[in-house]
Amino acid sequence: MGINGIELLGYAASIMVALSLTMKDIIKLRVLNFIGCTLFTGYGLMIDSMPVVLTNGFIACVNVYFLLKMRRENRHH
């Protein structure tokens, strides 16, 4: 039995989130985590799982918020 596209998306999302947690640089961590959460949101939509969609959509937004905040702070220094 092979892996279908939806499963592949779920694995890709898992790998991105796991990889993000190995980053020392907080910006790289947040960017990779954002990508993983975005993939998980798509995965959740495909498997019709609102808990996956809502949780990962929220975390993706948190990552964007902090990335924009860090960008603004770097511009003012």
TrEMBL record:
Provide the transmembrane region boundaries.
Answer: 6-22, 29-46, 52-68
Print the keywords alphabetically.
Answer: Membrane, Transmembrane, Transmembrane helix
**Is Cytoplasm tagged as a keyword?**
no
Pfam families in the record: Imp-YgjV
| Superkingdom of origin organism | Bacteria
Protein name (record): Membrane protein
